[in-house]
Amino acid sequence: DVKVTQSSRYLVKRTGEKVFLECVQDMDHENMFWYRQDPGLGLRLIYFSYDVKMKEKGDIPEGYSVSREKKERFSLILESASTNQTSMYLCASSPDRAIDTQYFGPGTRLTVL
Amino acid sequence: AQKVTQAQTEISVVEKEDVTLDCVYETRDTTYYLFWYKQPPSGELVFLIRRNSFDEQNEISGRYSWNFQKSTSSFNFTITASQVVDSAVYFCALITYNQGGKLIFGQGTELSVKP
User: Fold this and answer.
1) Nearest to B4 by CA among A70, A43, A30, A106
2) For residue B41, which residues of chain A lie inside 8 Å, CB to CB?
3) pLDDT tens digits along A10-62
4) What is d(CA A16, CA A81) in angstroms, rounded to the nearest whole number?
5) Looking at beta carbons, which residues of chain A come within 8 Å of B96?
6) pLDDT value for B56
7) How far apart are CA A95 and CA A98, in angstroms?
8) Chain B contact present for A83, CB below 8 A
């Protein structure tokens, strides 16, 4: 079974804080993704990575950065959290090809006060 | 442009009813893949099925079935004899090589199954 885990289910931070969201997959997948999900806006891709130390911008990268130092771990970083980054964050991984099935983690519900 | 439309925002049924969730997609690519995911209240997106553009065979898995019709660009999902545990938001999604692996999601259909 594919297992994607995220470091926290719920997180509350203050405006201006630096926030790290961690994602780990245990299936030796090449590709990893970060999405955010908001009511009325659906799921939007923030960043993705096809290899270690590699990253690509998704549709809404502004205000975010990512890090992939090891194959199994993909971190999303909010350098200075803002209230409009309050959202549900979902991490996903897929095996190899760009069109492979993406498997999602449980999500982190982040609230920025 | 690639697009996925789930016209039904919310559906409410009574347990044991059959229900069909509609999905219409747009793409000019000849090779593409379609997916359905389930998102229960806990929030995790659970993969249900993947279909490639060259395989129009319908698929059945227990109470779930999928009808893929290229002629109408539709990939509909039917739950037979629905149960309360089927209550969730269901997403249809599309991916093509030309999109660089970006999953394009529909807006989702919230299914409520009442006892």
Assistant:
1) A43
2) none
3) 999 999 999 999 999 999 999 999 999 999 888 999 999 999 989 999 999 99
4) 5
5) 99
6) 85
7) 9
8) no
